Known about the structure:
Layout: E1 2-4, H1 8-20, H2 29-35, E2 39-44, E3 49-51, E4 59-65, E5 67-73, E6 80-87, E7 91-92, H3 94-99, E8 106-109, E9 113-119, H4 120-129, H5 131-150
Amino acid sequence: MQKMTMTDQHYRDLARILRKVEFFAPMTMGELERILPYIMLCRFKDGEAVFKQGEEGDAFYILESGKVGVHVKKGFFSFSKKVAELKAGDFFGEMALLSKDKRNATIRCEGETQLFILLSIDFQTVLATNPSFAEDMRKIAERRRFESSHDK
């Protein structure tokens, strides 16, 4: 992973993407602007794991460019299976941040990928300063957890 310098264009792109992300859509532009300084942009190499199943959640991710595979391992000796693919504009990692659960999948880059990253500690600051946003995040995470448990 390589941290990149964010340009004005990156911030504009990020604001545009955030408006499309279900979690951030209800927020005003002023609320979004308060979040932007907490978000960093990082480049990942082909095949690099963003995080692994079972690790503690420490960040929320939005794909700026490239794509990632979502891989799930069932059982101790089994191989992981690719269950989904995410592309630019998609997001992941919110469930572990809100519920303190371990990561339920491994996310692996498929080609060079750039991710906007909001670290857990900064994420908690944002939630603490915006209760309505925190409630929206909680509801969406609960729905995703329900959907995930019924896909098994």
